[in-house]
Write a structure and sequence with these properties.
The chain has 402 residues and is an alpha/beta fold. The protein has helices at 20-28, 36-39, 57-65, 83-90, 101-109, 129-133, 149-158, 184-187, 231-241, 258-266, 279-291, 325-335, 349-361, and strands spanning 5-10, 31-34, 48-51, 70-75, 94-96, 117-120, 138-142, 164-170, 178-183, 196-202, 248-252, 271-276, 297-300, 315-318, 341-346, 365-371, 374-379, 382-387, 391-397. It is built from 13 helices and 19 strands. A seven-stranded mixed β-sheet has the order 13-12-11-14-15-19-16, with helices on both faces. The chain has a five-stranded parallel β-sheet with strand order 3-2-4-1-5, with helices on both faces.
């Protein structure tokens, strides 16, 4: 039988930040749980202290066995990227928040925060941040000692995101509280307290891209331009993939990265994983990633080798198989999540027939779109049409589990 567990938010001033009632609950508890910094605010506590270290599953097991009164201390609001959300899913708790660091930072900034986008690079990778925030006007970022404001500035500038200024607030609510506006360039070489919040504000317009980026905007192989999924086919293929904002997407044979880039803009909160066998094509891919502000995982290799490093996908795009269709489809079909889709672009009747048969044998639902596209082209004072190569867009859907 689980005892009474209260999760109490606490500020940088320690006991002084707590209501008298909260102090009473702590004094009357048998167990006090928290990080080393939170527990250090209570040197005279006479009950048992448990320091939160590593994973939380063992802590939950321990608390579920406790029959006495337990208080868990958390920084700021326990439900804002804090322990409160995890504990509330695992057991019965009561949560009493303190002002979050985000609230305090916006208060010092003297701006509203209901229209801000919130994200965290505290204890997690910065990968994918570029496409998540590109074009947004106000972003609050929780950082840590490794992913500091200076590292954040370097990351943003690598994607030429200089339209942002940063407001950094350090040691909020404590004796050493300080806050200031910074240009990203000057912020790169500064050192900040590990206890900080960075708020990015867009102060200049920036170029934003809608779906269907023109082909000639991508860096491509020279002089053999054209090794790119054409815009119209790209849009149709992306539509068939049914990408959600949190989808995991594979792009096999990414070449210039055009499909992966547009997929990353659709799956802003998800992740894209791409593979390409030609190393010189990867150079163009990396250049395009920076230009279009997308940050995804790219591997040099010949699929299916290397796909085992990627998490299971919700959607897969196959632009080419280099003769290895069977092995590639074996991996993609077995790893695809239920309800997911694989889109295979084929340019020959043989590839169409082989692809259809391969998907049907594996129990997938298959549909095909034949895209025959022509583009207008001026000729003297007139206009004619140039036809692109016909493309078979094969869409294979894995049946959802009952």
């Amino acid at each position: 039988m689980t005892g009474n567990v209260k999760v109490i938010g606490i500020g940088d001033q320690g006991k002084e930040s707590l209501l008298p009632l909260y102090k009473k609950w702590i004094d009357e508890s048998e167990v006090l749980v928290g990080g080393e910094r939170q527990l250090s605010f209570f040197p005279d506590y006479t009950g048992e202290k448990i320091v939160i270290k590593g994973g939380l599953s063992s802590l939950v097991e321990r608390l579920q066995e406790e029959t006495g009164h337990v208080v868990v201390l958390a920084s700021g609001d326990p439900l804002f990227y804090g322990i409160g959300g995890y504990l509330s899913k695992k057991m019965k708790v009561e949560i009493y928040p303190y002002s979050s660091s985000i609230q305090l930072a916006f208060a010092r900034m003297k701006e509203s925060w209901q229209d801000a986008y919130f994200t965290s690079i505290h204890g997690r990778s910065m990968m994918g941040l570029a496409q998540r925030i590109d074009g947004l006007s106000k972003i609050a970022v929780l950082t840590d000692e490794e992913n500091s404001p200076s590292q954040l500035a370097k990351y943003l500038r690598s994607f030429q995101m200089d339209e942002y200024k940063a407001f950094v607030a350090e040691n909020l609510g404590g004796e050493n509280e300080c806050y200031q506006w910074y240009e990203l360039q000057e912020m790169e070489d500064l050192t900040f307290s590990p206890l900080n919040v960075a708020i990015l504000k867009k102060v200049k317009p920036s170029l934003e891209w809608s779906i269907g980026i023109p082909d000639d905007h991508f860096a491509q192989r020279k002089p053999d331009k054209g090794l790119i999924t054409k815009k119209e086919v790209r849009v149709l293929s992306l539509s068939e993939m049914s990408i959600k904002k949190d989808s995991i997407v594979w792009d096999i044979g990414t070449c210039t990265g055009s499909m992966a880039i547009e997929a990353a803009k659709l799956a802003r909160e998800g992740a894209v994983y791409a593979i390409e066998k030609n190393e010189h094509d990867l150079e163009n891919c990396y250049e395009n990633m920076k230009k279009f502000r997308t940050d995804f995982t790219v591997r040099h290799g010949l699929a299916p080798h290397g796909l085992d490093e990627f998490p299971d996908p919700d959607a897969v795009f196959i632009g080419g198989t280099s003769g290895g269709m069977k092995d590639i489809l074996d991996v993609c079909c077995s790893r695809l999540k239920p309800g997911g889709r694989i889109v295979l672009n084929a340019v020959t009747i043989e590839s169409l027939a082989n692809g259809m048969e391969a998907f049907k044998v594996r129990g997938f639902d298959v549909s095909i779109t034949l895209a025959q596209i022509s583009r207008s082209k001026p000729i003297l004072q007139l206009t004619r049409f140039d036809a692109l190569n016909p493309i078979y867009i094969i869409t294979a859907t894995r049946k959802a589990e009952n």
